[in-house]
Write a structure and sequence with these properties.
With 249 residues, the protein is of the alpha/beta class. The chain is built from eight helices and seven strands; from the N terminus they run H-H-E-H-E-H-E-H-E-H-E-E-H-E-H. It has a seven-stranded mixed β-sheet, with helices on both faces.
Length: 249
């Protein structure tokens, strides 16, 4: 059975749905932000999704990540997400990349097809900076997720550009690094105006990063905003008739 997109077609029209069916999006990172964004893209009827994540599902993911269930603990996120997405949209073309994104394997991935758009939902700062730099230099539309950790107010998440972010320490670090490389920071991104809570934590295992606090309402909101930013160029909202009349007699 094919994905029924008739309710979206009522809003967007048949031409937009055809654009969605021909689109191909690359989602890098399937955590608390990327997993929700990937499902939103899938439910809108996109034709192809590339999924990049090397990690497996852990118990600490249960509070916010879409594929995290007790029945999927220990499974690779790519495989768990693929099974779910195909159950929603059986005609979806999926490309799974269950490995860690690096500056070395990034170019062939971006060259593998003409991507309609790329989502950066990566936690690793170096990989995030490399992905944004490559997309900007290649002219590939990219949206970056910045600043959902240690935040508690989903209403403070906003779509902006990297050069205009405020409040997010990660955005500040990424912006500084890209400027040093001579890369434009007018990159669409989802960030927060909220100042993060100072959480006291220690690494769960030697060599691991210090865990940060997370709230599903914040991370999922960021994911939906990222998906929306990727979809907007394909959807004709500005040309659709609306109820009501703004003119005065």
């Amino acid at each position: 059975m094919a994905l029924d997109t008739s309710r979206l077609e009522l809003l967007a029209g048949p031409e937009a749905m055809e654009r969605l069916r021909k689109s191909a999006f690359l989602v890098c990172g399937l955590g608390g932000v990327g997993s929700w964004a990937a499902e939103a893209l899938c439910r809108c009827g996109v034709g192809t999704l590339g999924l990049v994540d090397f990690d497996r599902i852990h118990a600490s993911n249960l509070n916010r990540q879409l594929p995290a269930l007790h029945s999927t603990l220990g499974e690779r996120k790519c495989q768990a997400m693929a099974r779910r997405l195909l159950d929603i949209h059986p005609q979806l073309t999926l490309e799974l990349h269950p490995w860690k994104l690096t500056p070395e394997n990034l170019p062939p991935l971006l060259e593998s097809r003409p991507w309609t758009g790329v989502l950066d939902a990566i936690d690793d700062r170096n990989a995030k900076i490399a992905l944004l730099e490559e997309c900007v230099r290649r002219g590939i539309p990219v949206v970056s997720s910045l600043g959902a950790a240690n935040c508690t107010h989903p209403g403070e998440m906003t779509l902006t550009t990297l050069d205009k972010t405020s409040g997010s320490p990660l955005a500040r670090l990424v912006r500084k690094a890209l400027r040093k490389r001579g890369v434009s920071t007018k990159i669409p991104c989802v960030s927060t105006r909220e100042l993060p809570i100072l959480c006291q934590s220690t690494p769960e295992k030697p060599g691991e990063r210090r865990p940060m606090g997370s709230l599903v309402t914040v991370t999922a909101t960021a994911g939906f905003l990222c998906a929306d930013a990727l979809l907007q160029p394909l959807l004709p909202w500005d040309t659709r008739p609306r109820r009501g009349c703004c003119s005065q007699e």
